[in-house]
Specification:
The chain has a single domain, classed as 2-Layer Sandwich (Transcription Regulator spoIIAA), CATH 3.30.750. The protein is built from five helices and four strands, in the order ββαβαβααα. Strands 1-2-3-4 form a four-stranded mixed β-sheet. The protein is globular. It starts with a strand and ends with a helix.
Length: about 140
């Protein structure tokens, strides 16, 4: 498969919300794993919702990553919920025998109709590194 994967982490009224867009396969599953691990380690929340609505394809590696990090989330006391999986993703999860992932579908997805909060500058809690301009600004203004 080997396409790209785009991940966005938001704070939502019901907890953390991670959107996944692209192909979730053996070449990109580690990126999802890193994002979930960061969310579990850095943020206090009772729930992490993984939105799969824009996942074009998923393979066994992607399903295994979701299953493994669902168990890790439970060890942290966090409920990992799957939201809006497309029919093809749902079928792949059933074929892999991982229906337990679908049993945790998020019941309150209505908030997503609103525009999510956007960050203009990378900083604490942001998954992407600061740009060179951001680092220069931080050196000039230590309080930034």
């Amino acid at each position: 498969m080997s396409e790209s994967l785009d991940l966005r982490l938001y704070a939502a009224p019901s907890g953390l919300y991670l959107t996944v867009r692209g192909w979730l396969d053996a070449t990109t599953a580690h990126l999802l794993g890193k994002a979930i691990a960061v969310a579990l380690e850095r943020f206090e929340s009772d729930r992490l919702t993984v939105d799969l609505a824009e996942v074009e394809a998923i393979d066994v590696a992607g399903i295994a990553t979701l299953t493994m990090f669902r168990a890790a989330a439970l060890r942290h006391g966090v409920e990992l919920c799957i939201a809006r999986p497309p029919a093809a993703v749902r079928a792949a999860i059933h074929a892999a025998g991982a229906e337990v992932l679908l049993a945790t579908e998020s019941p309150d997805e209505d908030w997503w109709d609103e525009e999510p909060r956007r960050f203009t500058e990378a900083g604490y809690g942001c998954l992407r590194p600061r740009t060179q301009a951001g680092r220069a600004r931080a050196r000039r203004h230590p309080s930034a």
